[in-house]
Amino acid sequence: MGVIYLDNAATSWPKPETVYQSMDRFNRQLGASPGRGNHSRTLEAGSLLLETREALARLFNVSDCARIIFTANATESLNLALKGILKPGDHAVISSMEHNAVARPLHTMERSGVSFSIAACAPDGSLDPHDVESAIRENTRLVCLLHASNLTGTIMPIAEVGAIAHRRHVLFLVDAAQTAGIIPIDVQRQQIDLLAFPGHKGLFGPQGTGGLYIGPGLEIRTLKEGGTGSQSEQIEQPEFLPDKFESGTHNTPGIIGLGAGVKFVMETGQEQILRHEGQLAEMLISGLQEIPGVTVYGPADGSRRLAVIPFNVEGLDCGEVSFALDQGGIIARSGLHCAPLAHRTIGIIEQGACRFSPGFFNTAEEIERVIRAVYAIAANH
Known about the structure:
The protein is 38% helix and 14% strand. It is of the alpha/beta class. Strand 5, helix 6 and strand 6 form a beta-alpha-beta unit. It folds into two domains: 123 residues, Alpha-Beta Complex (Aspartate Aminotransferase, domain 1); 252 residues, Aspartate Aminotransferase, domain 2 (3-Layer(aba) Sandwich).
């Protein structure tokens, strides 16, 4: 029996075959750095990067693809947004379900005079938008909210929060680590000023890829400066996008692979991807809830969550559960999932959780096998 991979919330696997093929073609047949010279191969590499940028712009309804900045991952994107926007004396609002990619930069920035408030979420991870508005102060510069939790899969009300932020003249940053490529995102309709996303999860790209959308009119400080292939005669960093934020050689094969992943998403349809993953999640949650001694966390309503399912087995450490599953060829994640705020919110900071996150390439037959495996672990410990 083959391995069942249920850790798609960390990195999606497998990738569409076109992702592997596009990266292999670049590495074997092209291999040049985009924007470095004017020979045919560097021009073709630059054209392929542009294709990915344009595809991402279409996916997120971005009017100017130059406002899509390539990064190494969503964490770099969030750091760029937070550290590039907030200054000493500024205040930010986040939720109690945020990932460490938001909490840690803000904690570090407190030392330089930035402050932040945490809007409390319910034990299932859900957020009342009015609690965000109540936390906004006179010096609030930014609201940062994840689109869906990497612990409970809880989908957050980003459209409602976006409307509140703009009515209060506050910038809105969305962490789409779990949703990009799965739930449709429209930066204009949802009033998103900054959108951080990874390439290696729902967009089916390789690890080491991601991006940040920067809305019109925003002045953001850079995290790094260096060679861009443009305005090389000047000592000053170029001010135009995307070059201002893309110093150094791109992860060109990775970005090309990301482009193939985005194309797969658009051809398949996000609605189909979300529906399939949702069906697997409902099947898995229902099966786990019937096993004595198993506790499942997150919203009871399947329409309010992604296919991210945390659970614990009574009397067993979550690491033991994950190890036992791995011995049976089932890949899951255990621990605190880089989200201690979220674990405190749902009341399992001391024990952590084992997490299943099925993806588009998983099957109902695999889910049935997983449920049987957890039943056996719970019954035999």
